[in-house]
Design a protein that fits this description.
148 residues; globular; 6 helices; 2 strands; mainly alpha; single chain; two-stranded antiparallel sheet; 65% helix
């Protein structure tokens, strides 16, 4: 029953997240690129989306840290490292460069697949190839997580 419960919660969370991406227009690369164009025709509306996401994240983490176990799981898995290293900075920079060039990040790109546009499918396929290459070339690069 726990697996079914966690699957349902994951499905519900995904639907809420995907709906939020559509409503906020994060699946529209032109909207994202206009937000990132602070020196040109800047559209600050996505700042409100990010601020709302930050509020939800802070509240959710505050509630989660007070619980002994997640609602639909046996234990929380918290990161064990708080170190800012070259891998973290490099990954963040690569993510930001890709987001700025294309206007997509992984979540909105997956949600935008529903539009059936070939550039979106090409981006997602490239993203999957990149993830697979990283996993294949650096199999021990993942960091362990601590279960509590």
């Amino acid at each position: 029953m726990t697996h079914m419960k966690s699957s349902f919660v994951a499905l519900l969370a995904g639907l809420v997240f995907g709906t939020g991406l559509y409503v906020s227009q994060m699946v529209n690369p032109a909207k994202v690129l206009a937000f990132l164009d602070v020196a040109g025709n800047w559209d600050p509306s996505l700042a409100f989306v990010m601020a709302g996401a930050l509020v939800v994240t802070v509240l959710g983490n505050t509630i989660a840290r007070k619980r002994s176990a997640p609602f639909a799981g046996s234990s929380f898995q918290w990161p064990t490292s708080r170190q800012i290293d070259a891998r973290l900075v490099g990954g963040a920079a690569l993510f930001g460069i890709g987001w700025g060039l294309v206007g997509f990040c992984p979540g909105p790109a997956l949600a935008a697949l529903a539009f059936g546009l070939w550039p979106v499918a090409l981006f997602v396929a490239s993203m999957v190839v990149g993830m697979a290459a990283y996993t294949f070339l650096l199999p021990s690069a993942g960091r362990p997580v601590q279960s509590t």
